[in-house]
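Dig into this one:

. . .
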Amino acid sequence: MLIKTTINSCCDQSCFFFSEGTKWKTRRRLITPTFHFSILNQFIQGIEEQAEILVKRLEEKVDKGVFNIAPYIALCTLDIICATAMDVFPNAQGARSSPYAKGVLRMGELIEHRFRSPWLWADTVYNISSPGREFQRCLKILHGFTNKVIDERIRERSNKIEKEEESGDENDFKRKKRLAFLDLLLEAYDNGEISKEGIREEVDTFTFEGHDTTAGGMTWALYLLGRHPDIQKKVVHEVDSFFETRPDTVTVEDVKFRYLECALKEAQRIFPSVPFFSRLTTENCELGGYFIPKGTTIGVSTLQLHRNSELWPEPCKFNPDRFLQENIQGRNPYAFIPFSAGPRNCIGQRLALLEEKLVIAHVLRHFAVESFQAPEDIALVSELTLRAKDGIYVTLAKWH
């Protein structure tokens, strides 16, 4: 329970991941339509635009030796999540001094530092400490940015509705507006179902939690593909086939990438972005022959589960074939839970997988990736997300 309290305090919000009862059910119901395939189709162009910017930045690293690719991926996913959540573009990849981008990235570092420092868990101590004061400054930047976007969007919606009422247009703004994450929340705000503060909570949570987990998934995937050139070539063949035959307007159904998806899932199995999560029992139950009373926090180690040799033979071997359709038949659905499981699973997993497929496809379309870091030489840091303590180093070359 101490960990749960600490996270809530760190996020300074009634976080979607930790809200309970009616509040959680209401917010989940409001947000779920955002991730319908018809809405995800609208995100594809924005994701590919940011992926192309990433490719241009990586061009500078071709044949220049090893470099840490993790920061490049992180900035790309931050731009993507801001575009899909708020329809704004902080240009984290281009304007490296962006206060919002720096604030989001620094916020993650400060939260991780607090996790490692039990003496800072108490709010009274943390608020007067140096990292605590820096945390508040970052929080002010993030909240200010989000509040400004929300206020501008509310005024924009109000002005359009007024103009259309004056013109007598029966197709009002709500029906004509393309529904994205913030738009759906604003419709709920119009209907009195959520407050402005509630909107900010959900947007901040979506943005903060949505970029680093996805960045981790892509970074680990590129690392493993860089260690296994034979598998990388199979993925590249699939990617090339897609770009050679892609339609003018790409939809989610077009972004199949069957083998790339297997590789991404296998990367998440070995290096799950979220290595640990917990559940609070709401009633007495029995687990593995043990009595678990109501109100008990149960921890789930995704990392250990995904590397359990009883479930996964040769668990540390990178083998995307494990996720081919013929090989997943009969497998326990809870043996692989990178996005958690049950009613409180990750609501954005479809978007995350779509984003990972498209960004990795664009990178591998242009570059051959190679990594010389042996797994045993990588120091894992298991905090908010699973990451390499000293970064993921790769080399890039043009395909011949």
